[in-house]
TrEMBL record:
The chain crosses the membrane at residues 24-46, 66-90, 143-167, 173-195, 262-280. It is found in: Cell membrane. The keyword Transmembrane applies. Keywords: ATP-binding, Membrane, Nucleotide-binding, Transmembrane, Transmembrane helix, Transport. This is ABC transporter ATP-binding protein/permease. It comes from the Bacteria. One of its GO terms (molecular function) is ATP hydrolysis activity. GO terms for cellular component: plasma membrane.
Length: 561
């Protein structure tokens, strides 16, 4: 839960759209929205007056007065239909435009300085995907809806207060006291509970949805493990938490609905009770009761907006807090400039100087005082038991691991290509897979097909409809095929340095040897992490990481001895 006021959180949500740059089109739309809102609310006041006129004409059995009143009434309705429809249309357009702008703002932050990686790796916030996909939509829609409702209520409040005061000052004073008491009860009794429950509900729904997505993405592995019973139990447990919180929400909603409905029904009956003596004494026409009842209800709704829209307000508050939490975490990541720890700088080679890597708790060391240099044209194999820090060292070179001390020199990030053990297969065509992340590069079809042949995927394009076929490649290709495709990506991108984290673990030794032979024929300098002794044949140096933060650098010949 964030500890600064909701208005500051609200400002963080509206600032990217309303205050970052001139938006004359949006300002014009906003002015139109205000104009149509003022117009529709004004016509509601006229409509109420005409209802009273209709009632009085019927009570007097005055045909001419009735015909005149019904004519005005229909005219008002027709114009108001146009105003309300236009208002709703513009409201929807502004909400959609706001969502587009806010989503773009969040995505820009999400992909700046690998925020998406840090949020996931260090569990900074739960379900950032759900916050950007669902919370932004709900917040923008609810905010515009409630802002328009507040504007409508303000106009009607001004108009109907005057009408109520003219009919009965006692009625007006009663209404003000009634609204104040109702608002206090709603905020004090229901306020904190509803915001907390809605926040928890958003989190539990997102966790449940994430679990289903995770099962979908790992369906084959789960099936091989015969793990359906365990997964089913876990998902039922997650849904059980969703169900329990919804039950809690329903119980609170039941109590709120009793209060809301009672509050609204009393606004309907109170005018009759208060004005009955004046009607019976013929001080007021019967139409005044109709007018006062409608006015009382409208003013009561305006003054009691917190009461009638409390569930919407609490859901909005929860959504704003979740989005603000995400913004705060991403801004912290993008603005982070470590004044100590691991210092990164750019060079034409990779050099690690007196590097010590620690776990995030800063208590456990993985690597102690490591110094190595890999010059252009050289190759290094990193070996060691599981858990000694091999992958952590690669993350430090990439700039992802900041816990520790020492210095790392490396080429610019766009001159280094990392190949993880499980390659990333983005949505797209086979051509895009081969060129990722530089999919705009123009490379001849023949070159792409020749490269596929070099990595032992000669029939891949033909099997799935050509280079421009759109397929979910992570599903149709085995891990070994994905690793070969990633090698093709490496050969085509021609970086200065390549860092391979067990990038051939899923292919047979003969294929792995062939891939490394192709890599040796290029000008790419490479660092590998691996366990196969066969890889020694394709590297000049070996870095062995050992337990107790120890390490030793060998030439390959010395290591083989």
């Amino acid at each position: 839960m964030l500890n600064f006021p909701i208005w500051q959180q609200f400002r963080q949500i509206i600032q990217p759209y309303w205050f970052t740059q001139p938006r004359w089109g949006v300002i014009f739309q906003l002015l139109l929205l205000v104009a149509f809102s003022l117009g529709s609310s004004t016509f509601v006041i006229f409509e109420t007056l005409q209802r009273g006129e209709l009632t009085s004409s019927l009570a007097q059995q005055n045909v001419n007065r009735f015909q005149q009143a019904i004519g005005f009434f229909f005219s008002i309705i027709i114009v108001n239909i146009i105003f309300i429809s236009a208002k709703n249309y513009i409201q929807g357009k502004i909400s959609l435009d706001w969502r587009k702008c806010l989503t773009s703002y969040y995505l820009n932050q999400y992909f700046t300085k690998q925020s998406f990686y840090h949020l996931q790796a260090f569990s900074e916030v739960d379900n950032p995907d759900q916050r950007m996909a669902e919370d932004i939509k709900n917040v923008t829609q609810r905010l515009i809806f409630l802002l328009v409702m507040c504007l409508d209520s303000l106009v009607q409040l001004i108009g109907f207060i005057g009408l109520l005061w003219l009919i009965s000052p006692i009625l007006m004073i009663t209404l003000l006291a009634y609204a104040v008491v109702g608002t206090l009860i709603t905020t004090l009794v229901f306020g904190r509970a509803f915001v907390g429950i809605n926040l928890e509900q958003l989190k539990r729904e997102a966790d449940f949805r994430y679990g289903l997505v995770r099962i979908r993405d790992n369906a084959e592995a789960i099936a091989f493990y015969e793990g359906q019973a365990e997964e089913s139990a876990q998902m039922k447990q997650r849904f059980g938490r969703v169900f329990a919180n919804i039950n809690r929400l329903i119980r609170w909603q039941f109590n709120l609905n009793i209060f809301q409905n009672g509050y609204q029904y009393l606004t309907f009956i109170l005018p009759f009770i208060i004005l009955a003596p004046q009607i019976f004494s013929r001080e007021l026409e019967l139409g005044a009761v109709t007018q006062s009842q409608a006015a009382f209800e409208r003013v009561g709704f305006a003054l009691g907006l917190i009461i009638t829209q409390f569930d919407q307000l609490s859901a909005l508050t929860a959504g704003i807090r979740r989005l603000t939490e995400l913004t705060t975490k991403m801004e912290k990541i993008t603005s982070f400039e470590p004044d100590s720890g691991i210092q990164l700088s750019e060079e034409t080679y990779i050099a690690v100087n007196h590097l010590t890597l620690q776990l995030p708790d800063r208590q456990t060391k993985l690597i102690q005082d490591l110094s190595i240099t890999v010059l252009p044209g050289q190759s290094l194999l990193i070996i060691g038991a599981s858990g000694v820090g091999k992958t952590s060292l690669l993350r430090a070179i990439a700039g992802f691991w900041v816990e520790g001390e020492g210095a790392i020199k490396r080429p610019p990030p766009d001159r280094i290509l990392f190949l993880p053990q499980r390659p990333y297969m983005p949505w797209g065509t086979l051509r895009q897979q081969l060129l990722y992340p530089h999919t705009e590069k123009a490379i001849a079809k023949e070159t792409l097909l020749q490269t596929l042949n070099q990595v032992h995927l000669p029939n891949l394009a033909g099997r799935y409809g050509g280079l421009d076929a759109f397929v979910d490649w992570s599903r149709v290709l085995s891990l070994g095929e994905q690793q070969r495709l990633a090698f093709a990506r490496l050969l085509l991108s021609e970086p200065a340095y390549a860092i391979l984290d067990e990038a051939t673990s899923a292919v047979d030794e003969e294929t792995a040897a062939s891939l490394y032979q192709k890599l040796q024929e290029t000008s790419i300098t490479y660092i590998s992490v691996g366990h196969r002794t066969q890889l020694l044949n394709y590297h000049q140096f070996v870095l062995e990481l050992r337990q107790q933060q120890e390490w030793q650098l060998f030439s390959t010949k010395d290591y083989e001895k």
